[in-house]
Design a protein that fits this description.
The structure is a single chain. The protein is an all-alpha fold and 100 residues long. Helices cover 54% and strands 0% of the residues. It is elongated, with a radius of gyration of 17 Å. It starts with 12 loop residues before the first helix and ends in a 15-residue tail after the last helix.
């Protein structure tokens, strides 16, 4: 039997970065976007959980704050999977028959 983990445990990395990394440093989105060399809108979308964290953005956070990009991307993957698992019953795919 597989262990089921409640989807609320899986956190989008954007709001986590905002609360745990960006806000405690007192840097605003515009200044951080300039530092990371990304658009303010793109960064805002990520930090507010409206857009997935890309591998490139994860590397930018790694370089700026010393976070491991792999950790941030694992957070994103776990969050994405939890979102789909919440409605996986709507995905109608039959198992493929095994080859003879």
């Amino acid at each position: 039997m597989a262990i089921k983990i409640h989807p609320s445990i899986h956190v989008h990395p954007g709001p986590w970065l905002k609360r745990q990394i960006v806000e405690p440093r007192g840097i605003n989105v515009k200044a951080l976007a300039e530092h990371l060399d990304v658009s303010r809108q793109n960064l805002s979308n990520v930090l507010n959980g409206h857009t997935a964290l890309s591998a490139e953005m994860a590397i930018r956070f790694e370089k700026a704050f010393g976070l491991r990009a792999e950790t941030l991307l694992r957070m994103q993957g776990a969050y994405d999977l939890a979102q789909v698992r919440a409605h996986e019953r709507d995905i109608k795919v039959a198992p493929l028959p095994t080859a003879a």
